[in-house]
Amino acid sequence: MEFLALVRRAGLPEPTRQAVRRDAAGRRRYLDALFEEWGVLVEIDGGQHLHPATAWADMRRQNDLWQRGDRVLRFPAWAIRHAPTQVITQLRTALTAAGWHP
Q1: β-bridge partners, 16
Q2: pTM to 2 decimals?
Q3: In this predicted structure, which of 21-30, 35-44, 48-57, 71-80 has the lowest mean pLDDT?
């Protein structure tokens, strides 16, 4: 996973990948990356997430997670490959705001 390699190179804590959470309706949801100790979640969106129905489903899931107190960051897969510095900067900022200390 390119994201995990990026996180490791940046010296950030390693997330749990494909972590399972239950949504408000009790359905199993898989999260791309979970930094559980800090309540920071990362979702990486491929091109299929641009379809309006898929984007709306993503938004509903994100809203559900936010309502429970988690911090959700979303990145397009493109950014992982072409804007890694921006991705890491935002992730580091979110983790620090949530209490992580390097």
Answers
A1: 34
A2: 0.84
A3: 48-57
